[in-house]
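Now read this:
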Amino acid sequence: MADSAATTPAPPAEQQPPAAAPAAAPAAEGAEGEGEGPSKKAQKKAEAKAKKEAEKARRAAEREAAAKAAGKTTGPTEDLAKDNYGVVKERKGQFELSADVEDVNLKNIGEEHVGKAVIVRAWVQNARIQGAKMAFVELREEGAWTIQGVLVASNEGTPVSKPMVKFAAGINPESFVVVEGTVQKPLEPVKSCKVSNYELHIRKIFVLAAAPQMLGMTLAAANRPITNFSDEEPAPEKAAEDGVDKLSIAAESSIPAATMLTHLDNIIMHKRAPVQQAIADIRMEVKDLFRSYLKSHGFKEFEPPCLIGAASEGGANVFRMPYFDKEAFLAQSPQFYKQFEIAGGRKRVFSIGPVFRAENSNTPRHMTEFTGLDLEMETKKDYREVLLMLEGVLLHIFRGIKERCAAEIELVRSVYPAEEFLLPEPGKEVRLTFAEGQKLLREEGPEEFRNVTDDEDMSTPQEKALGAIVRKKFNTDFYVLDKFPEGARPFYAKLDDANPKVTNAFDFFLRGQEILSGGQRINDPEELEARIIQKGVDPKSAGIKDYVDVFRQAGVPAHGGGGIGLDRVVAWFLNLPSVHLAAYYPRTPKRLLP
């Protein structure tokens, strides 16, 4: 083909006869009509026309030969890469990947993959075209693992063609794709990608699930800090005019930051945000560390019910629902059932499960459903055995996530900046009595707390102020307040034998906010009944009578325990602006979706 482009080809056969035809035609006409030959002028005109047609044919043949030599044709041709790309839905599910190529996760790509073909299934984070023959596609997997993919159209049009390059560059962000390509090293690290030392030279790309052209919330917006946590839906007539208020432009960035309401309305993009995945990963580690520590200390896991026949602890903040011909309730706490396990012969038990509170509190600290990490244990000498066990498991959790989740913590802090979480040195744990905490507030706290008393419960502002004092004075963000006043604790809390005005009950605090309540329980039925009456509760009321009767069925050893709010542990450890960010699907008085 190259030789034909360099020479002058003869006109095609079908184009040769016209050169003689014009001269013959007049002769025929003259024979029939006038009997004269063509004039010289007409003959010259015919010869010039024939030469012109021959030259046009020659040039067309040259152009066609040159195009074929360059690997392309001037007319419509088949896309030789058509089987290497496309939308699977449009292909009726038909697509083919190489059978001998390994599926890999981006986080596992290493030197051993360089020069080898791999298959990756990921989301398209962004795509762009560069000229007509090159496109870049940034691919993302779970955990914000990203890699740069490159497509370059070859002169032969396979395995990558120009139409394939154009297709790849036009894939909507957040579409889910499968690609096949060769792992190579870029000329220099791709700083915008987590997998920066490698890139993927793509030879096949198929859209498995296409994203819409316009997303309700972009990934960039989803990964910005949330500052507005109102989850109240606007009135229908105001929705349009208030829609713009769901977005705010931070001074340091042109990327809009969405409200919590927008995040919850676009839950998929909310959960795809790297910061939310990092928070979720830390949450999972907290649960794992809690479970593994307790199991290593002889605790047995059990599963308390969520659906119960009477209000837990006789409280008013309980969700009621019809249950056939009766009324049922959602458990406010596994407290009674933890004690039933101890009464039933277990020495140490724990549970992880949902807790429900019908409390109409619309604050960043409250949810109507949260996850409780609970334990209960038999005591041998003193209730402080329980305090030390709970302190031990929490310190194990905090040190463990600092070690296991360093990258996730760094990612969260890049979005929600926070001071380093300070832990006490081993042997220097801070344990104050409630009275000592109030004394610190009176002496070193803000002016409004100079008159706090030892027999009143602490408010949230008091807790935060005390947390700031403890951090400054003891260099820690984690501490214990013991011996809470009798009026601030439920009926099952054991009174201090030496001072019945206080209980053998305690709270644990993180950055000045409570994450745990616990203490010794009353295990004597008569003492328990007397306390119930003292608290103004009818000991024969539904649920309460059954609870007291458990302690009459058999002798129950001295015991105690505590309940930890998982969501609060995660939120306050990371110093997030709202506990809602630590929950998978936050439930509030105004929000039941998604």
